[in-house]
Specification:
single chain, mainly alpha, TorD-like, 4 strands, 58% helix, globular
């Protein structure tokens, strides 16, 4: 059984929610978005230890075991002498640098009007009963929030009570990928790579880039 677990967004509606479904190729997509969302959250001790031990690659392999399309997970390279402070500092350098008054990991900093982006995202999330986390550390245009939204939409497709409802959630995924997530990620990845990230962080953005591109193609096809 698979259960979704949001880290950047929270349910705001009180209606009864399906929380578990049988694992299949759709829940594998949801599970992969779940792992990627956790991967791009600010690193704590567990995050660092999973990187140093290679556990993140294993998590992605397990999450995507039932995928009906291929994307490359690859090998993680983490120097044995890498310490937590260096790891956290690299995360901050690559993803939290100022860019047009915001952070690189915020999609709203890649357009001309971040407020408009936030308004559109809030509208999309609220339509499905989702809102920002109470702690405020992960804004609506944070990469983690957008990965959460895809995790939720794919889970809802897997849990749909009819093929027609499932197709509506698939269309929502396609729209969000085309108009939002897959639209700004190439620029994000390009900017991070230009800063010559340490190997683990190069692996991170590579897995993100590879999976979202493959998933967008699968949804559009």
């Amino acid at each position: 059984m698979f259960a979704y677990s949001l880290s950047g967004l929270e349910l705001t509606e009180d209606s009864q929610q399906v929380t578990e479904v049988e694992e299949n190729e759709i829940t594998a997509r949801s599970a992969t978005y779940q792992v990627l969302g956790r991967l791009f959250t600010y690193p704590d001790d567990d995050h660092f230890e999973m990187a140093r031990s290679g556990q993140w690659a294993k998590e992605l392999e397990e999450a995507g075991a039932l995928l009906d399309f291929d994307y490359e997970i690859g090998e993680i390279e983490v120097p044995g002498e890498l310490d937590k402070d260096v790891y956290t500092g690299e995360f901050e350098r690559l993803f939290l640098v100022d860019s047009n008054g915001g952070k690189r990991i915020w999609s709203g900093t890649y357009g001309d009007d971040r407020d408009q982006t936030l308004t559109e995202l809030a509208r999309a999330y609220e339509y499905y009963g989702l809102g920002g986390a109470d702690d405020g550390d992960v804004p609506l245009d944070h990469l983690g929030s957008e990965l959460d939204f895809m995790q939720f939409l794919t889970f809802k497709e897997a849990a749909a009570s009819s093929p027609r409802l499932g197709k509506s959630f698939r269309r929502a995924q396609g729209d969000f990928l085309e108009n939002q997530l897959a639209n700004w990620l190439p620029d994000f990845v390009s900017r991070v790579r230009a800063d010559q990230p340490l190997p683990f962080f190069e692996w991170m953005i590579g897995r993100l880039e590879s999976f979202v591109a493959a998933d967008a193609e699968a949804v559009a096809g």
